[in-house]
Design a protein that fits this description.
The complex is a heterodimer of chains A (about 900) and B (about 80). Chain A is an alpha+beta fold. In chain A, about 35% of the residues lie in helices and about 15% in strands. Classes of the chains: A alpha+beta (about 900), B alpha+beta (about 80).
Chain lengths: ~900, ~80
């Protein structure tokens, strides 16, 4: 093996015709590819000197087989020079700054020096630009009057001169341009920022075209035995044909007009060969009408060589399928279908210590019949790297053969570590390491508590799985990427994994107010918890049977020495907190691992703001926190199942009194709006400071109607109490809000576009159902109905308008933030925190002298601060600290 | 030409100070870096002009920090390239 070398510098330049001919192994003159026998034509586009793609043949240049021959360039001699489209801008610039007669820079030496600065100065490096040269001046060297150079996309250059008071354009042929560029002196080029040693400007006009090796434009054989050529080959065929015709016409002395036409045609073909998406040039098309994918298209864009093949590639050892929930799995596990575990392998090196185990894997073979069966192996790799596929026929022979030095690719089995990912991978928690659980079925299974970091749900989402193939990768996955070590988000320093939806409703129902459970109920609730004894019962019932409180049951999942005080999500933020006496039971107090008062809800165990979870991580570590999540989710699911939890259309029903009140409120609001409009029409309205009359009126109307909707919500809320599932979900923070409930039961309220009432539509009105210039509430999108009562046709239309705006906003936001993120990642991806705490680039250049200025890893912090002072004091004093 | 503005007295401009040779040597030694590996700032930066810094100087910038209370950064003054 050669030793690694350091890249000193990279030089970019142009190929000169001389170099192109020198690297060419064959001059290509025939436009044909294969003859009738399927053998390449000599000097054709598939010439055997250019490399081979057919197996069995040998390259005539390097004498290697198809797999080893890298391919070799050929060349086409063009009948006349043509412009390279990629350099039209440079050509235009050079034509404009050089003299049309002597080709020198249109500046005196002094002028140049003024811009560039003294030659040997350290700070030199300024360049002459197009703007530094005055238009249509006289050449300071030969006195020639300069003309304006016009450039027309894609490749036409012309000079403009005035004749008889009219502007006349004279087209410059590529040959003319080439002659001019040839004459530009080297020193003038250096002043322009062109290094003439590697890039003489005339080399931007092609006289010789390199023909890429067949290896980069292989032909494919279709099922029907027909050959199908690569797009590049098609384009080269066109170029050679036209070139040939051009030569013949030239030799026959064809009229100038025909020559010019052919020249332009050749230019077109070479242009599209290089770039088929040039502005002002119709793209060359395949027979089927599909635009050809030529050189530039191979490199550009997301699927191009750079972004698609070099920065990112498809990988092996990966699997993808639909996901579904399984609350019985631990958060650190992932359920994998048997079919996938049978297919995916990881290599194990045979050693004297594991040879018996591996021999057994080999004997088990590639077919694992059930999830309970021991895992088998799919391949064995000999010390000479020969791979042997295991099949029922060779199991025993291979098992006999293996010895230290071999590698066995064994199937995935329970407890292996795998990487699990859901796109879009927006943050590091989008890829986490889980432990394998082999399962029946065809979907990946995950604990719903790990949905928030992946942003996954189960409406058809698919996720990817990757198997780390080396011992190092597995160790790294376990230590850095495991679910456990990612419970704390480095974004906030708080937990991102935790209870969601039913977990929160369940734990809320379980812990709300004080209730007593019989032994049967208590055991039902706790049967999945890893506990050995029930605590002392709280009291005995009338029959002398023991009863436990719901708070006692919850306390079973808490660590014994936990001390906390906080307000639950259901806290109403009363002016004076009644603390333990709170009538909503929202004051959570935990002493020595026992829940004394308070309801556990989103603030306690929810993903994003689970305070209990956060405290356990700080004081007991990730492992205990992971266990807590497992326990609390299982307990809460039992809790919700104990009572049952559902929501139906009749849960939105109110009584006659409430409907009457709602109507009253809405009618009052509507007439209030009418009254204000009347005041406005009479010119009595007093404008607010800095607002016009119309704006004032609009604001007043919005305010009145907004208040009216809130009032209907209050009326509905008064009727719907804690026995209503939607209220439970809203109060506990599990899902939805009181506003959603208002819209279901009370009134939908004002629909808006850009924060204003709906004003668009027909002339002077939103819909033809209303009078022109009507300002009333209904005419501009106020919906008095609720989802329950149903929307009128006009209301429905307004609702659709408002809803559409929301959709458009999300679409725009995601695309914009996606692009922003891409740019940011490209800029920051190689920075790392060095051992001395500085943030550095790969070149060792310092970006930040101390990471985040305080050197704190936010993922190991408590909401950003290095020490959770409040938590420590609370757990010592066992009471609230201000 | 008109009124002049002292940028240094603006509340959002942090404290800039030119470091002397010894301080720079110590700085480079602490971080095991060469002068080139320092962050840069342009010679025509208003704050650099105000304290009379020149190309090649290293400037100590002391900022109020949300995380650390007070943070120091060091920047090498370089000539601004045109365009």
């Amino acid at each position: 093996m050669t030793s690694p070398k350091r890249v000193g510098r990279i030089e970019f330049g142009l190929f000169s015709p001389k170099e192109i001919r020198k690297m060419s192994v064959r001059k290509i003159i025939w436009a044909d590819t294969y003859d009738d026998d399927g053998f390449p034509y000599p000097q054709g586009l598939m010439d055997l000197n250019l490399g081979v793609i057919d197996p069995g043949l040998r390259c005539k240049t390097c004498d290697q087989k198809a797999a080893d021959c890298p391919g070799h360039f050929g060349h086409i001699e063009l009948a006349k020079p043509v412009i390279h489209v990629g350099y039209t801008r440079l050509i235009r610039k050079l034509l404009r700054v050089s003299c049309r007669s002597c080709s020198r820079l249109l500046m005196t030496a002094e002028e140049v020096e003024k811009i560039i600065g003294p030659e040997d100065s350290e700070l030199a490096g300024e360049l002459v630009s197009e703007k530094d040269i005055k238009k249509e001046r006289v050449c300071p060297h030969c006195g020639e009057q300069q003309l304006k150079i016009n450039f027309e996309k894609p490749t036409t250059f012309s000079e403009v001169f005035v004749e008889d008071g009219r502007k006349v354009e004279h087209k410059l042929t590529p040959a003319d341009i080439r002659a001019r560029l040839e004459k530009i002196p080297d020193d003038d080029l250096r002043a322009l920022g062109v290094n003439p040693d590697v890039a003489r400007p005339e080399w931007t006009i092609l006289t010789v075209l390199p023909v890429p090796p067949v290896t980069m434009r292989p032909s494919i054989i279709l099922e029907n035995g027909q050959r199908s050529e690569d797009d590049l080959t098609h384009k080269l065929v066109d170029i050679i044909r036209i070139n040939q015709r051009f030569k013949e016409n030239q030799d026959a002395g064809a009229p100038q007009l025909i020559i010019e036409d052919l020249w332009e045609l050749l230019q077109y073909h070479v242009t599209t060969y290089l770039d088929n998406e040039v502005a002002g040039c119709p793209p060359a098309r395949h027979r089927s009408g599909r635009p050809l994918k030529t050189l530039s298209q191979r490199l550009k864009g997301k699927e191009g060589r750079f972004r698609g093949s070099l920065s990112g590639k498809r990988v092996n050892f990966s699997a993808r399928t639909v996901i579904s929930p399984d609350p019985n799995l631990s958060i650190g596990e992932v359920g994998i279908p048997l079919a996938i575990t049978n297919e995916m392998t990881l290599p194990i090196r045979v050693t004297p210590f594991n040879i018996d185990e591996l021999r057994q894997y080999v004997l088990n073979g590639p077919e694992r019949p059930t999830i309970k069966s021991p895992c088998g192996a799919n391949y064995a790799i000999r010390p000479d790297n020969r791979r042997m596929r295991l099949s029922d026929a060779n199991l025993e022979t291979v098992a006999e053969m293996i010895e230290p030095g071999w590698t066995v690719e064994r199937q995935l089995k329970a407890n292996d570590i795998v990487l699990f990912n859901r796109q879009p991978s927006l943050h590091r928690m989008s890829i986490m390491a889980h432990r394998v659980v082999v399962m029946d079925g065809k979907t990946f299974r995950l604990n719903p508590a790990v949905c928030p970091p992946y942003n996954a749900d189960f409406d058809g989402d698919e996720m990817n799985l990757h198997i780390p193939q080396t011992e190092e990768a597995r160790a790294e996955a376990e230590i850095l990427v495991s679910v456990q070590s990612n419970i704390l988000s480095p974004r906030t320093g708080g937990p991102i994994i935790g209870g969601i939806h039913d977990h929160i409703s369940g734990i809320f129902l379980l812990t709300h107010t004080v209730r007593h459970f019989s032994k049967e109920e208590t055991l039902y609730l706790t049967q999945h918890l890893p506990i050995e004894h029930l605590p002392e019962p709280d009291r005995l019932d009338d029959d002398g049977k023991p009863l436990w409180t719901n708070k006692q049951v919850f306390s079973l999942v808490l660590p014994d020495d936990l001390n906390m005080l906080f307000q639950a999500s259901s806290c109403q933020n009363c002016e004076t907190c009644k603390r333990e006496m709170c009538e909503n039971d929202a004051f959570v107090r935990v002493v020595n691992g026992n829940l004394i008062t308070g309801t556990i809800d989103k603030k306690g165990i929810g993903a994003f703001d689970g305070q209990i979870l956060h405290r356990i991580i700080r004081q007991h570590g990730m492992k205990r926190a992971a266990r807590f999540i497992d326990d609390v989710t299982k307990l809460s699911i039992r809790g919700i199942m104990l009572e049952g939890f559902s929501f139906g259309i009749d849960d939105e029903d109110l009584t006659k009194t409430e409907y009457g009140q709602i109507d009253e409120v809405l009618n009052g609001a509507l007439s209030d709006v009418e009254r204000r409009i009347k005041i406005y029409n009479e010119g009595q309205l007093e404008p607010m400071p800095g607002r016009t009359l119309e704006e004032t009126l609009e604001m007043q109307i919005m305010q009145v109607l907004g208040k009216a909707r809130d009032r209907t919500g209050e009326i509905a809320g008064r009727h719907l109490g804690m026995d209503n599932s939607a209220v439970v979900m809203a109060v506990s923070g599990a899902r939805g809000s009181m506003l959603n409930l208002t819209q279901m039961a009370g009134c939908l309220g004002q629909q808006s576009v850009r924060g204003e009432r709906i004003m668009r539509g027909y002339e002077d009105r939103t819909l033809p159902h209303f009078r022109r210039n009507e300002r009333g509430a209904e005419a501009h999108g106020f919906i008095t109905n609720s989802y329950k009562s149903g929307l009128s046709p006009t209301e429905f239309f307004f609702h659709a308008i408002g809803g559409r705006e929301g959709l458009v906003d999300t679409a725009v936001r995601t695309s914009q933030s996606g692009y922003l993120q891409r740019r940011m990642i490209n800029a920051l991806q190689d920075l790392k925190v060095a051992y001395d705490g500085t943030v550095r680039t790969t070149g060792g250049r310092i970006i930040q002298f101390c990471y985040g200025e305080d050197g704190t890893d936010p993922g190991k912090s408590s909401y950003g601060s290095p020490v959770d002072v409040k938590g420590i004091i609370e757990s010592v004093l066992k009471q609230e600290v201000k | 030409m008109g009124t002049s503005l002292d940028v240094l007295s603006h509340e959002m401009v942090p404290d800039h100070q030119i470091m002397d040779g010894e301080e720079v040597t110590n700085l480079l030694a602490t971080y095991h870096i060469s002068l080139e590996q320092l962050p840069k700032m342009y010679h025509d930066d208003p704050a650099v002009k105000a304290i009379g810094g020149d190309v090649g100087n290293v400037i100590r910038i002391t900022r109020d920090s949300r995380t650390a209370g007070r943070a120091e950064a060091y920047r090498l003054v370089v000539k601004r390239p045109k365009k």
